[in-house]
Model the fold of this input.
Amino acid sequence: MALTVETKDRYSRQIVLEQIGKAGQERLRKGRAVIVGCGALGCAIANSLARAGVGELRVIDRDVVELNNLQRQQLFDEADIGRPKATAIAEKLAKINSNVRAVPFVVDVNHTNAEDLIIGCDIVLDGTDNMETRFLVNDACVKHGIPWVYGGAVGTSGTAMAIIPGKTPCFRCIVPEIPVAGKLPTCDTVGVLNTAPAMVAAIQSTSAIKLLTGAVLDSVIFTFDVWEHSFSTVKISRRAECICCAKGKFEFLSSERKDIVTQLCGSNAVQITPARLGKISLAELAGRLRELGDVKLGDIVLTFKVDMYELTIFTDARVIISGTSDEKVAKSLYAKYIGS
Ligand SMILES: [Zn+2]
Done:
């Protein structure tokens, strides 16, 4: 097939690669990818895929850019602070490569819209910061037979895994249940070195480029610690009793496995009752949050004040967030400070 002069020049270093070639470049042009979450992972993935010439990129995020994002979220600058991340990224991608169609969605991905957001695309890339959304993406992708690439980074370590429905294990083959809220560290509580998500995103983007150009992807989990220079690749297999890919039950697409978010009448507050309630250690959580704001630890509740918000955290992982009536803001604060 004939490539335009502009295409030949723009992608010359990529076309010359034996793994890509002219045919691979043309396949990338026809590729449609969805990036769920526009934080450190989402920025780096969007940057790579736009420059590589993937034809359509849907970028999804519910948050706005904050000053503390600039340390690691590569596509934002100071002028973007306060702007929706998805819109800011789409504008930046258009400047980087005007041949790419970047479509922003400023939404909270949940069971009512997850399928619509991914249908018609070739691959989904995980740039989220919480397990609930990953389980939801897994359900939606397995149901519709769309490959997705999991990625996570915290501290100086990271993990990536490509999931091809029907061929490789799905996310629930590896992580059968959402860990109880408050158990996992988050980037807000333990920090993150900017090279860790950059590395995860490099692996995720490579998986996307391989898949879109027709290369074979292995069933492996890649984990590393950039600080320690330690890396490992573990072969994984499907779990015969997996509720999602073996039994075809998509629990997270139904409302039964959804966090319950309630506006509290007459007050500027929102309550979040996680789908998976469980006993959390308030003392342990208090230890992690102490550096980030004002913490008061009681017997049955922990209160945590940060910026203009106050989070009242109960031992069953339920949280009341005062200072906002916006459910998106409340869910973001929950994912940041309590985790899931
Ligand atoms: Zn499975």
In short: The mean pLDDT is 92. The chain is about 30% helix and 20% strand.
